[in-house]
Design a protein that fits this description.
The chain is α/β, with parallel strands linked by helices. 32% of the residues lie in helices and 13% in strands. It has a 6-stranded parallel beta sheet, sandwiched between helices. Strands 2-1-3-4-5 form a 5-stranded parallel beta sheet.
């Protein structure tokens, strides 16, 4: 019987995953909670496929799992997986790139409005018995403010169009698009530096790669408007947290709405938690009951399709299908 190993997950019971695997006649063990290479190596030696959330899938891991045919990600980001090494070994790498694009784009808009309309600050103030506007002055009319999306993928475009519906002027930047052009759905494309200097809201929608790690650093923050806010629903490592904390303390940017962090869970005594110009949510942007169903079932579906000799719905290195 083919064996699928969940090497880490914080998504609770695996009834949904097991149901998918059993439709193919495959076995899923009780989920492991691997953190390190050594943890993963200890559980994958007889795996035909692995499902991963954050644990490292490295060359050493792959070399320790000779039967492996598929690595399937719980979600979008695959920064913990050595895709090149998988491809060299004929191992399919799959993810679920579209399971929560509506939810994550909603989260970006929710964080934006929480700051741009002062919702959280006003809530705290009224609970403390102060019925006034001092905590949020000055607020400005949303219509005409500039909402800049860094990245022009599915989530970014959904957020951009929702922002446009609220009255924001939208611009975007992406290494795959030429500045001075317009996307097919009407988003003007500018350079990264132009976006930083022009935007009242800078919303991040890029994967974490070597090229995007600390994309928002001290230099980038210094190019933003002092009244601008930063929104991150992408990956925590895209932002240099120390630089952001400094910018928020010094009010060189007005605020930040963060759903993702370089260290997760965010420690309760982290400097971000002491700032009153930050809105924090616990990597919750992906969540709805509908998206959770897709998140739990589609990674197993992708892995099972590979093991069954079928083409999975989402595969990042399709060349391997011609090698097996």
């Amino acid at each position: 019987m083919k064996k699928i190993v969940i090497i880490d997950s914080n998504l609770g019971a695996i009834d949904l995953e097991r149901n998918v695997a059993e439709q193919y006649g495959f076995l899923i063990d009780k989920p492991k909670q691997c953190k390190t290479e050594e943890d993963v190596i200890s559980v994958v030696k007889d795996a035909d496929a692995v499902i991963v959330q954050y644990a490292p899938v490295t060359k050493r891991v792959l070399d320790a799992s000779p039967n492996l045919k598929a690595v399937s990600e719980y979600g979008v980001g695959v920064d913990s997986i050595d895709i090149a090494a998988c491809t060299e070994r004929g191992i399919a790498v799959c993810n679920v790139p579209d399971y929560s694009f509506q939810e994550v784009s909603d989260q970006a808009i929710a964080l934006t409005l929480a700051l741009d309309r002062g919702v959280v600050a006003l809530d705290k103030q009224i609970r403390s018995g102060n019925y006034g506007l001092a905590a949020v002055k000055p607020l400005h009319r949303i219509a005409g403010r500039v909402f800049g999306v860094v990245g022009l993928g599915r989530i970014a475009r959904a957020a951009a169009h929702k922002a446009c519906g609220l009255g924001y002027k939208v611009i975007g930047t992406d290494v795959a698009f030429e500045p001075g052009t317009t996307t097919d759905d009407g988003i003007p494309v500018v350079t990264f530096e132009e976006l930083l200097s022009l935007s009242d809201v800078v919303s991040l929608h890029v994967p974490l790669t070597a090229g995007t790690k600390h994309l928002i650093n001290a230099a980038a923050l210094s190019k933003m408007k002092p009244e601008a806010i930063l929104i991150n629903t992408a990956r925590g490592g895209v932002v240099d947290t120390e630089a952001l904390v400094d910018a928020l303390k010094n009010k060189t940017v007005r605020g930040a709405g963060l759903d993702v962090f370089e260290t997760e869970p965010l420690p309760k005594d982290h400097p971000l938690t002491a700032l009153d110009n930050v809105v924090l949510t616990p990597h919750a942007g992906y969540y709805s009951e509908e998206s959770l169903f897709e998140l739990k079932t589609r990674p197993v579906q992708n892995a099972a399709d590979v093991l069954a000799g079928k083409t999975p719905r989402n595969i990042l290195n399709p060349v391997v299908l011609t090698l097996n």
